[in-house]
Input
Amino acid sequence: MNLTDAEALDRADPLARYRDDFALPEGIIYLDGNSLGALPKAVVARIAQVVGEEWGQGLITSWNRYDWIDLPRRVGEKIAPLIGAAPGTVVVADSTSVNIFKLLSVALAVRPDRKVIVTEEGNFPTDVYMAGGLASLLGRGHQMRLAAAASLADAIREDTAVVLLTEVNYRTGAKLDMRALTERAHEAGALIIWDLCHSAGAIPVELTGANADFAVGCGYKFLNGGPGAPAFAYVAPRHLSGLRQPLQGWLGHAAPFEFAPDYWPAAGIDALRVGSPPILSMSALDAALDVYAGVEMGAVKAKADALFDLFTTEIRARCPGLDILTPSDPARRGSQINLRHPEAYAVMQALIARGVIGDFRQPDIIRLGLTPLYLRHADVFRAADILCQVIASGEWDQPGFKQRAKVV
Amino acid sequence: MNLTDAEALDRADPLARYRDDFALPEGIIYLDGNSLGALPKAVVARIAQVVGEEWGQGLITSWNRYDWIDLPRRVGEKIAPLIGAAPGTVVVADSTSVNIFKLLSVALAVRPDRKVIVTEEGNFPTDVYMAGGLASLLGRGHQMRLAAAASLADAIREDTAVVLLTEVNYRTGAKLDMRALTERAHEAGALIIWDLCHSAGAIPVELTGANADFAVGCGYKFLNGGPGAPAFAYVAPRHLSGLRQPLQGWLGHAAPFEFAPDYWPAAGIDALRVGSPPILSMSALDAALDVYAGVEMGAVKAKADALFDLFTTEIRARCPGLDILTPSDPARRGSQINLRHPEAYAVMQALIARGVIGDFRQPDIIRLGLTPLYLRHADVFRAADILCQVIASGEWDQPGFKQRAKVV
Output
């Protein structure tokens, strides 16, 4: 494989035309769409419209005129097809963390006699922290049971109330088997919550097909909703009837503008709403999701796999010392490439200085996101080339690159 | 008083120059800044910069380069002087509702033996709903005690764990005595949480002077942060040490980017952070707050009082049948004028058709917000004139104005 071969692949790529939907900086190869997705061009015009026209000119009347009040549902409906969810089962609200709190509360209440929450050892910290915070608040002896990915099925037992899993691991890119683990949870009489932060918009997700109970996910990675974009929450149709969660805010009320003294939850998924939605941030996510209209997630996965193979083939041939953490089996991974290097932080700084942006994860992980809608085969080829040059030349081994920044 | 007199007052108004900081629609008199503040011109440029440059060009590196990660604290520091709070005691995060949940959890944990939460009858519903949701979740027999404003001091007793009050009532504009009620709460051994949604940026607030324990408030009313702008939370310095709340998200961790398995709350006010902040919405609030730089809240109150007097004098003279709900004593009200009319909804629709925007609140309330930074005496004079014309002519009494919209 050489650059000419990679460029030929780009010419034949059925997703190539989507790159033009994004405003990408010149001279940068962006392999961090798994942390913050690139800016869709449509967002620029939409935000200018929301600020200048809807807020500036429409003022308070825009809650009706532009239907801001139902934006959380409308955006939810755009996410639903990307995650295999039926209409009316997804709403956008709050952050992933807060949505975990709501859904875990709901799930624990279904199994009041059971005290164990099963999760993966090495799950993204906020999932574990939020579960721990809820357990402490309840003070009813709920405990976390952490198990390695391979032992999860065994860890789900008759004492398990809820299983809380992230489908794609943030540090390895490994994907759990949603269908098998959901089946195992149900077999044990437990409910299951899937965190789709590294799945939504990245790989085909089949919440309905897997019979999942609940799911959450963020809007700012593969969905390209912008920094800190609001998160989403999914509830299976069988759990929607009578849905009630403890963060009983006025916008989750059945009739918020009646200002009734008692709380009656809205019917269905709207019961997960709490306070006023951040309209600017939510409108950016709304506009960003239009890029996905007509995109088939199977095609996204096929290109991601091609990019993964291209990159790892180059790495194995040219800098074989780099340890590739992400599974080579396409069915067992998300849309990232995670590599291990003892000086991962410094290597990433050297890469950034060369225009290749990815991220570092503690303690020794280089994490590169594959976003097929705006990455070209040639970009990935160049990135592999630059990475191997950096490793070979030792240019990362300089004091400037070894200083830790606050966030990476 | 006639229009010429009102215009003379505008020429002498020391706050008159701030009006030019806002992008206001032509031909509209906006008396709804207490629901959604007008657009500060600086927000337009700031949001274009955040979207195009920071997100679009800086991508993931902007979390460091533009210090997005500390934006919740920086915005909190701008709000602090407006509410009489010391540096390091205010953070911007989530919604008012979610912040009530956090702080009420903290406060209830301080008084585990007490089971009563005192609030005002007719407090804004979300405050009562959120408290009810927390009480149900805890399942430890916490109960709400609702009392009329005049009976609040008596309702705070030795069984009271927490007092949860909104300083300015959303339906009457009446202001509670923060200092006296805080003292009464402490005397009874209770803690107090103040909801400042209709206070922050509207009237001088002295959280430190009143010795308040906790406070929350929204960013989208008098602070002009835009639709659904993030909310703020205040914790008195004496409660900051060891502060821990149940929504233990990763960004409230002492070292979020260490991705440690155990949760250790950040020192101080940062322990109230949960998930990723919505940077677009929060940046709008940040830019909007710059309008307040150098503004003295006493001057804002003085002008609000002058506007109130001007409006009510006209109403009493020209349409005396209208019932003015808001106290005439300036020390006992916020920055609104609440009127009662049996067909309040239809009257408000007729006013909007004439370019005077305020809002309707169930069941019979016309609510007008006084925002001295962008309202002129002449605007308020004209609004009173138009309101009395509408009432006198009966032009509100038409089917088109009597149909209820979804949100008002």
